[in-house]
Amino acid sequence: LFEAIAPITFTPDNWNVAQNVLVTPVDDNRVTGTRTGTIIQKVVSDDPAFNNLAIKNASVSVLDNDTANIIVTVSDGNTQVREASQTDKFTIALSSQPASDVKIEFLTTSPISSLVPVIFTPKNWSEPQTINVVAVNDGISQGSIREKTPIRLSVTTNDASYNGFKLNHIPVDIADVAGVTVTKTSLQVGEGERPN
Known about the structure:
Elements: E1 35-39, E2 58-62, E3 70-74, E4 79-82, E5 88-94, E6 102-107, E7 118-120, E8 129-133, E9 147-157, E10 170-175
Parallel strand pairs: 4-10
Antiparallel strand pairs: 1-2, 3-5, 5-8, 6-7, 6-9, 9-10
C-alpha cells in the first residue's frame, strides 16, 4: 500500500525539533477506492529509557486516483468506409488495470463485416487495440446517398468496475460502390433504323 518509509533519527542535539515523515502510496493503476493503511512505528535506541518505547501506530487513508473507463478513439473524428474498397479504423483502450479479463464485442449489420472481439487482460490492459472496419459490396445501389450504420459495443468481465460498462455506438458513414454497368459491348444498325 505504501512505498518504503525512511526512518527518522533524533539526537541529543535535535531531540526537541519535530520531524516530518514522508508517506507515499503506491500507484497501482487499479480501481480500488479509498483504502486505509496502518503504519507500524518502532523506537530503537541505545538509551534504555527510549528503546522499545511504546508508540501509537499511524492510520493513513489512501485516496484512489484511478477510474474505470473505456476510451474509444475514432480516426479523424469520423468512421468512413466505402463498400469493397475504402476501410477505416478506431482504437479501444482501458484507463485502469482490470482485476480480470475484459471482453469487448461488436454488433454489426450489413454491409459492415463482422468484427472480432477484443480482450484486455491484467497484463495487456495498457496497450490500445485497433479495430479495422470493412464494408462489403451488398449489391444494393444507394447512388449518392451515404448510408449510416452503427457499430454497437458490449462489455463482459468479472471485474465489478468494468462489468456492464455502457459505451456509445460508433456511427459508420458508408459510401456506395461507384460503377457503370454495360449490357452490350457491340451494336450494329443500318441507316434510318432505330437501335433496339
